[in-house]
Design a protein that fits this description.
Strand content: 5-15%
Oligomer: single chain
Largest sheet: 3 strands, antiparallel
CATH superfamily: DUSP-like
Number of domains: 1
GO molecular function, one term: cysteine-type deubiquitinase activity
Strand order of the largest sheet: 2-1-3
InterPro entries: DUSP-like_sf, Pept_C19_DUSP
Pfam families: DUSP
Protein name: DUSP domain-containing protein
Length: 125
């Protein structure tokens, strides 16, 4: 029951800038990335590692420079955008963010290729 309440809270979160600097809204997004529970069946998205680093740097250093749109093309097969390249590793080639964060990134920065993945129960828990 507690997980369901948390999920509803995140779904209702509004990331409109409301006149605030973009990095203030983005800082709220980073808090969600760190605190959002992993819910089985929920869709999360891969974000290219280098771009994600620029995104975090912009937020924490309050830069207002343009980092460009998120481009995940280096992570996927040239023939099929839904197939991840062999050897792609989390925290080395990509980071994983909840869907609500990917929506924020797409609206704010743009996104050339979204790479959704559904969370599954780990056999290692």
């Amino acid at each position: 029951m507690e997980t369901k309440n948390v999920q509803i809270k995140f779904e209702q979160t509004n990331f409109e800038h409301r006149g605030e600097p973009i990095y203030e809204a983005a800082r709220r997004v980073l808090k969600i990335i760190r605190n959002h529970p992993l819910i089985e069946g929920e869709t999360w998205y891969l974000v290219e590692y280098h771009w994600y680093g620029l995104f975090e740097n912009e937020i924490w250093n309050c830069h207002s420079e343009k980092i460009g749109s998120m481009d995940n093309s280096s992570l996927v097969s040239e023939e099929n955008n839904s197939i991840l390249k062999l050897g792609a590793l989390e925290s080395e080639h990509f980071e994983v963010v909840p869907g609500i964060v990917c929506n924020y990134i797409s609206k704010t920065y743009g996104c050339k290729i979204e790479i959704p993945r559904n969370s599954k129960r780990s056999i290692f828990t």
